């Protein structure tokens, strides 16, 4: 837990409580951390990797809510656990993950009692709102072709292991539309496609 900015600023009692109950976790890419509707007893604080959080509609379609990465925890997970309520989204490991699971009851108490931890949590919410505002702006003002191209360019790696359906979830569209755009990109030598793999040229 020492890798988190807020940890050193906590009261000594809070540090000791967190250290005593924190369970180190390694989670493989592709694994669901929790599903929409679950009631979780623990909250993951991420030290390595990237998690995608999506919201699923009753018609089967999904939309991206946000990502969380190293040094962060999931706002959806925190809010649901704090209120003992079902999760409003599904969290999926985009990469191999490492982190610490903390009992939700302790996290909720720290949030009430410790101002440093409150500041950390509020900062996470600010980031989520900024991300969603940016995403709404992109949906409103950019074509889907441009949004997909930007999404590809955001990745440092040249080979992405992801399905067209998963990209559709991220961009808020269907697999068929993503496939059509990617095929046009391939025709223009922007990408090379194979099953669940996209090579950026």
Q: What structural class do helix, strand and pairing data support?
A: alpha+beta
CATH class category name of the largest domain: Mainly Beta
Portion in helices: 40-55%
Backbone CA Rg: 19 Å
Give the name of the CATH architecture of the largest domain.
Sandwich
CATH superfamily of the largest domain: Jelly Rolls
Distance between the termini: 39 Å
Query: What is the number of strand segments?
Result: 10
Count of helical segments? 7
Going across the major beta sheet, what is the strand order?
2-6-4-5
Q: What is the string of helix and strand elements? A: HEEEEEHEEHHHEHHEE
Q: In terms of per-residue confidence, which ranges show pLDDT below 50 for 5 or more consecutive residues?
A: none
Shape: elongated
Topology:
Blueprint: H1 12-21, E1 23-27, E2 32-34, E3 42-48, E4 50-56, E5 62-69, H2 75-82, E6 90-93, E7 97-103, H3 104-113, H4 115-141, H5 144-153, E8 159-160, H6 164-171, H7 175-187, E9 191-194, E10 197-200
Explain what this protein looks like in three dimensions:
The chain is α+β, with helices and mostly antiparallel strands and 201 residues long. It folds into 2 domains: 7-140, Jelly Rolls (Sandwich), CATH 2.60.120; 142-200, Arc Repressor Mutant, subunit A. It is built from 7 helices and 10 strands. It has helices at 12-21, 75-82, 104-113, 115-141, 144-153, 164-171, 175-187; strands at residues 23-27, 32-34, 42-48, 50-56, 62-69, 90-93, 97-103, 159-160, 191-194, 197-200. The strands form 3 sheets. It has a 4-stranded antiparallel β-sheet. It has a 3-stranded antiparallel β-sheet with strand order 1-7-3. A hairpin with a 2-residue loop joins strand 9 and strand 10 (197-200). The longest helix is centred in the middle third of the chain and has 27 residues, at 115-141. The N and C termini lie far apart (39 Å). The model has no long low-confidence stretch (mean pLDDT 86).
């Amino acid at each position: 837990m020492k890798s988190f900015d807020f940890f050193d600023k906590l009261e000594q009692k809070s540090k000791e409580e967190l250290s005593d109950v924190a369970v180190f976790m390694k989670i493989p890419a592709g694994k669901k951390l929790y599903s929409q509707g679950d009631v979780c007893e623990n909250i993951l604080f991420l030290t390595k990797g990237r998690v995608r959080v999506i919201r699923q509609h009753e018609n089967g379609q999904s939309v991206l809510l946000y990502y969380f990465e190293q040094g962060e925890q999931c706002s959806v997970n925190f809010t649901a656990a704090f209120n003992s309520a079902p999760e409003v989204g599904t969290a999926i490991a985009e990469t191999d993950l490492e982190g610490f699971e903390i009992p939700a009851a302790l996290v909720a108490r720290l949030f009430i009692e410790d101002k440093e931890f409150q500041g950390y949590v509020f900062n996470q919410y600010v980031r989520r709102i900024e991300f969603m505002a940016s995403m709404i702006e992109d949906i409103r003002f950019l074509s889907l072709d441009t949004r997909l191209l930007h999404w590809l360019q955001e990745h440092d790696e040249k080979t992405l292991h992801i399905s067209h359906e998963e990209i559709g979830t991220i961009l808020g569209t269907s697999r068929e539309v993503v496939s059509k755009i990617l095929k046009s990109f391939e025709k223009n030598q922007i990408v090379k496609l194979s099953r669940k793999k996209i090579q950026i040229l």
